[in-house]
Amino acid sequence: MANETKLPVTKKANEPAFAGEAWRPFETLRKEVDRLFEDFGTDDFWRRPFRSLAGFERSLAQKLVSAPAVDVAETDKAYEITAELPGMDEKNIEVNVANGALTIKGEKKVETEETQKGYHVSERRYGSFERTFGLPENVEADKIEAAFKNGVLKVTLPKTAEAQKPAKKIEVKAA
Questions:
Q1: Buried-state track 141-168, b at ≥16 Cβ within 10 A, e below 16
Q2: Which of 48, 87, 119, 138 has the fewest CB atoms inside 10 Å of its own CB, making it the most exposed?
Q3: Mind listing the pLDDT tens digit of every residue in the chain (175 residues)?
Q4: Where are the domains positioned within the chain?
Q5: Gyration radius of the chain's alpha carbons
Q6: Domain 67-161, what fold?
Q7: Does pTM surpass 0.70?
Q8: Is 160 in contact with 109 (CB distance < 8 Å)?
């Protein structure tokens, strides 16, 4: 069984240590439901009954863009980073290599407009993300490739020829 190699992930100063700090959907939902029940029966409630839940839905969609799921795997010849980016286009995704780090950036813009009898709704949602990975020394940075298909970004980081050589077994002798 091969040992797992992990690429170091660098974190920006303003980012939380783990996703649980950045986004707590159930806590946010609980607060919105509590607010809904507090407002129930007031005149204000009947004028805009589910406005706060619509706001929760918008913030939920925006948070999902800011923290995409990323898998890192190692094969004999390369490291592979796979990021799930549903609903995004390749023109809104940027992959850069600089100073020993790989950065994946993306931005999603959604605009909807609906007009029916008696009302007009126009919404705009924007969200962006950025993930940075430290590159191991055994990666050929000039040969890194990225492909995007069906909402999944796959970045291939080929290993150097030296790193691809099989491990040499050393015989242990009795002293």
A1: eeebebebeeeebebbbbbeeebeeeee
A2: 119
A3: 455 555 655 555 555 444 444 556 777 778 877 777 766 655 554 444 444 444 545 554 544 445 677 899 988 899 999 998 887 888 989 999 998 899 999 888 778 888 888 788 888 777 788 888 888 888 998 999 999 999 899 999 999 888 888 888 899 999 8
A4: 24-66, 67-161
A5: 23
A6: Immunoglobulin-like (2.60.40)
A7: no
A8: no
